[in-house]
Amino acid sequence: MIYITKIFHYEAAHVLLGYDGACSNIHGHSYELQVTVKGEPVNDASNPKNGMVMDFGDLKRIVNDNIVLEFDHAFIMNANFPQDFIEDVRKRFEKVIIVPYQPTSEMMLEDFAKRIIYKLPAGVRLHRLMLRETNSSFAEWFAI
Length: 144
Prior knowledge:
By secondary structure, the chain is of the alpha/beta class. It is built from three helices and six strands, in the order ββαβαβαββ.
């Protein structure tokens, strides 16, 4: 079994509804997302992907199309905010993402895993996600 990892970066703002600290205010992060998949390398000299678990370009396309392009430079909000507040924010800002969860790194990882798992080619499985908010703070998701 071989594991390969690709690293992505994006900028986003969020706010934590009901939180008892500074993160209850709108703030942003320079996120780093590490995506690790596992599988057996292709062993077929006639296959252009010979020797690869997965083409890094294909992994990049999956993650960019399903996560990075949507979340980069977005404002992420919990759907439990008052509806009039959400509507006001949407009128004032172009890229607002309303999620059905508290937009912590932990919960975003669960969301991201669901967005990636079924897009992977046959024989390749998602193994690990790591989402770094700051130089010293990150969350990890591992396949069970």
